[in-house]
Amino acid sequence: MMEDYPYAVTFACEWGSNPPKAIKNKLQIYFQSKKKSGGGDCQVELTGGAATVSFKSKDVRERVLAKEDHELAVENGKVKLRLLRREENREEAVHGA
After folding, report:
1. SS3 state of residue 93
2. CA distance 62 to 83
3. How does pLDDT run across 3-21, given as a tens digit for each residue?
4. What share of the chain is helix, strand, coil (3-state, %, to 5)?
5. Inter-CA distances, 16 with 4, 47, 48, 70, 95, Å
6. CA 75 – CA 24 distance, rounded (Å)
7. Using one digit for the tens of pLDDT, what is the confidence trace for 23-79?
8. Where does the PAR14-like first RRM domain start and stop, copy by copy (predicted)?
9. Domains and CATH numbers, the chain
10. Is the pTM of this model over 0.90?
């Protein structure tokens, strides 16, 4: 459930209109890795040429944002992830807290 992951970051992904096979799974693994991305527990949503990664913890999101370059290895090279936007706490937006 997305409300369990209120701290989101959206990245533009350089794969065009056809994302590589298993990209959602690769993004999930990458952003769950503290070593690779600074990330942690998360969920990934794909929309066109963008990926929204939602984290349970604000601290984890801040670690991901602190890392300047995010690249993901795919079958035909690497995909660069460029920060599009940082969403405020979804729970606060929904409940007005």
Report:
1. helix
2. 13
3. 799 999 999 987 766 777 7
4. 35, 35, 30
5. 30, 11, 8, 17, 35
6. 14
7. 999 999 999 999 999 999 999 999 888 899 999 999 999 999 999 899 988 877 888
8. 12-83
9. 2-95 (3.30.70.330)
10. no
